[in-house]
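Hi R.,

As promised, here are both runs. First protein below:
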Amino acid sequence: MHQPRIFFLATIAAALLALPACSHNGDAATGKPLDIKFQAVDGRHVDLSKMQGKVVLVDFWATWCGPCVGEIPHVKAAYDRYHAKGFEVVGISLDQDLGRLQEFTKSQGMAWPQYFDGKGWGNLISSKYGIRGIPAMWLVDKDGNLADTNARENLEGKVAKLLAK
């Protein structure tokens, strides 16, 4: 009777253990502008260089990533609290199924733009910045420079501090 649940949990555990550690080479880019431009899934044009004056969270994530999904309430809370004050979120999805991504972001009320190229770990933007594990959450300051490569820790506090500068 409990075998399907055990199989499901074992499958999830195996998948999580197979994920690479959250690592990246973003530290080398800290203090420098990020060259991120794309047309979002919803048709919006995103260009970080044109978002100066705003604090931007660049969220490398995927719908199949448990820890990424676990961060959504924190990202939404920060977005809801600070969006009107100049906080933006840009999602960089490592998903391979566009329909799943669209359905998921809609069901979660994720109003921010999402990059999708269907290449999973070969995603052009995440590969460019050396993302080897997700979630990876980076904050860009009002000057357009990468300010923090570990925004998961105290996201709202970090956003408030950058907005106050």
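And here is the second one, sequence first, then its structure tokens:
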Amino acid sequence: MNKKEYAQQIVNELLTLTKGEIIEVADFVHFLIEKTKNKGIPLHQAGLTQEEALDLRRRLTTFESDWNVPGMEAYDNL
């Protein structure tokens, strides 16, 4: 089964869940996307709720251009 077929199977199974259960699944999917994108520590280990983490990320984006200039990777291991 390829990725698209497997995803369709999951969608079909989602349709059997309650709205609350679907919201729970969506929260988990968003968590996995963020975890994969950031490769950081899990939110529960950081002591943050998903809302707090998203707010923190939003506020820190103002520094992104400074962090991504050449040479700043030297600070990654600190």
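A quick note on the second one: The two ends are 43 Å apart (CA to CA). Let me know what you think.

Best,
J.
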